[in-house]
Write a structure and sequence with these properties.
By secondary structure, this protein is mainly α. The chain has helices at residues 3-18, 22-31, 40-46, 49-59, 65-72, 88-101, 107-116, 125-130, 135-145, 151-162, 167-170, 172-182, 185-194, 209-217, 225-234, 249-256, 259-267, 283-289, 293-302, 309-315, 318-323, 357-370, 377-382, 396-402, 406-414, 436-443, 446-454, 470-476, 480-488, and strands at 81-82, 202-203, 423-424, 432-434. The protein has 4 domains: 3-72, no CATH class; 81-163, no CATH class; 239-384, Alpha Horseshoe (Serine Threonine Protein Phosphatase 5, Tetratricopeptide repeat); 387-491, Serine Threonine Protein Phosphatase 5, Tetratricopeptide repeat (Alpha Horseshoe), CATH 1.25.40. 54% of the residues lie in helices and 2% in strands. β3 (423-424) and β4 form a beta hairpin.
Length: 491
């Protein structure tokens, strides 16, 4: 919200009242009880600027002009966030996300609580992690972060914005997000020129427009992404401004496997060691978590951060893998360091990485298979990594299947991996008791489906959650080619 625009509108409203404009006088009487029964002549003669300001504030959902002013120009000691989705269910889900990730999301989430909840203002990270923290507490955090005293005030504002069509003047950040969401780069750049401060304002969960623009540029078919990103950078957007989980634009580029954007951000000074969602959650680790080997290779050329075993295995650099061992099987302390990051969002369940050498080895093997790093598989196996282990949400073969890494899958099968091993994947509402064939079919990876079928995968196995075969999963996710191929095979 632009305070100068609100002041201008208040002055215009006052002039309209004094000119006898019936709509303006009606607005005054409707929103200001003092003027409900006052005659038109008196209203024209006696209404003052503070009366018009009060009307503007009430129309915007604020109790008074000082409340609107505080929202439009928050205290310099802290950085309020702007609403960009006018949907109560959506912002409530953000609240639930904070509840789910409070203990695992790292210092950024704890700082969000400390900054915006008065009870936790002077508490340490550990004290916040251990303290009772309810949904009411999380609601208060989001209300205060958005510039409101209470959750009810915030929700009133959300509902009001959902019913309005003039967000370009009342909430430019929301209008800019809408333009990004729809791919209206021309409209977005016009808003940015009219409101230069948008380049460094923060939306819900601390997301800047640069972070959001990078996320949309990662969507298939979305055009103009680089143009919007370049416009924001030219306007002075901070390339390292992280959201409330520590997530920077470079994290988002890594998450989306966007090499061109990552190169641009790096050239503008993007930090390679910024951590999100837990210790060690750098952009490189974000890429490796998903098996995005293309952008991982790019980021790895800049710097390997952190330099632990799972990063070395995910990059497939045998020298770095070897450096994590002292002898044939013993791991160095660095091999298992900085593994606090284990999920990119709260859709994945909670887990606590341990210092168990077996877990560190097993996880490294999974990460190597995600990115098809066959060159390091023998070394990890020789050190004791288990081919059928499921350290966190997926065996090596299941992740190879999900990422369509046929060479890694062939290596695993050649060396004794159980092709029908059930495992976990994703969150608790999906991916329970799935096989590699389930995952390959769901994602439509025909080369992997053919490989697994040729190697004897049991197509009659049903997952534990939906009791569906791989063919049923292919049908559900619209993978018609895979469905027809599996159906054509003789059982």
């Amino acid at each position: 919200m632009n305070l100068e625009q609100q002041k201008k509108q208040a002055r215009e409203l006052l002039r309209a009242i004094r000119a006898g404009n019936q709509d303006a006088i009606s607005r005054l009487r409707h929103h200001h009880s003092r003027w409900t029964t006052v005659d038109e002549v008196s209203a024209r003669q006696l209404a003052a600027l503070h009366d018009a300001q009060f009307v503007l504030a009430r129309e915007q959902g604020f109790a008074s002009w000082p409340k609107l002013k505080a929202y439009a120009e928050p205290s310099s000691r802290s950085r309020h966030t702007r609403l960009f989705v006018a949907n109560v269910a959506w912002i409530t889900d953000r609240v639930h996300g904070l509840l789910r990730t409070r203990q695992s999301a790292g210092p950024a989430a704890l700082e969000q609580i400390r900054e915006w909840h008065p009870r936790f203002a002077d508490w340490t990270d550990e004290e916040i992690r251990l303290a009772p923290f309810t949904e009411e507490d999380a609601r208060l955090v989001y209300a205060r972060e958005h510039g409101f005293e209470t959750w009810d005030d915030l929700i009133s504002r959300v509902n009001l914005l959902a019913s309005r069509t003039d967000v370009a003047t009342t909430e430019p950040f929301m209008a800019a997000f809408s333009a990004l969401h729809s791919g209206d780069v021309t409209g977005f750049e016009a808003l940015l020129r009219a409101n230069p401060s948008l380049a460094n304002e923060r939306g819900t969960n601390g997301n800047t427009l640069l972070n959001l623009a990078v996320s949309f540029a990662g969507k298939p078919g979305w055009i103009g992404g680089m143009s919007a990103i370049e416009a924001l950078l030219a306007a002075g957007a901070d390339v390292n401004d992280a959201n409330d989980r520590g997530w920077t634009p470079l994290h988002q580029a890594a998450y989306s496997n966007k090499q061109e954007i990552a190169s641009l951000l790096h050239a503008k000074g993007a930090a390679l060691d910024a951590e999100a969602h837990g210790a060690g959650g750098t952009p490189l680790i974000t890429a490796l978590f998903w098996g995005h080997r293309e952008i991982a290779d790019l980021l790895g050329r800049y710097a390997v951060s952190p330099n632990n075993l799972r990063a070395a295995a995910g990059l497939g650099i045998l020298e770095l893998v070897e450096a994590c061992f002292s002898g044939n099987r013993s791991l160095t302390p660095e091999a298992g360091a900085a593994r606090g990051f284990y999920r990119p969002h709260s859709g994945f369940p909670e887990w606590q990485p341990s210092t168990d050498p077996q877990e560190i080895l097993d996880e490294a093997l999974v990460w190597a298979c995600k990115s098809n790093r066959v060159s390091v598989l023998e070394r990890l196996s020789r050190a004791g990594a288990r081919l059928d282990a499921d350290p966190y949400r997926g065996t090596p073969l299941i992740w190879a299947a999900a990422c369509n890494r046929t060479e890694a899958a062939s290596w695993l099968l050649d060396h004794g991996a159980n092709i029908n091993q059930k495992g976990t994947f994703g969150g608790l509402t999906h991916g329970q008791g799935v096989t590699a064939l389930h995952m390959a079919a769901q994602y439509g990876h025909m080369p992997m489906v053919e490989l697994l079928a040729e190697r004897g995968a049991d197509r009659s196995i049903k997952d534990d959650l939906y009791h569906s075969t791989a063919e049923g999963g292919a049908q559900y996710f619209g993978q018609i080619e895979v469905q027809e191929y599996l159906r054509s095979l003789v059982m």
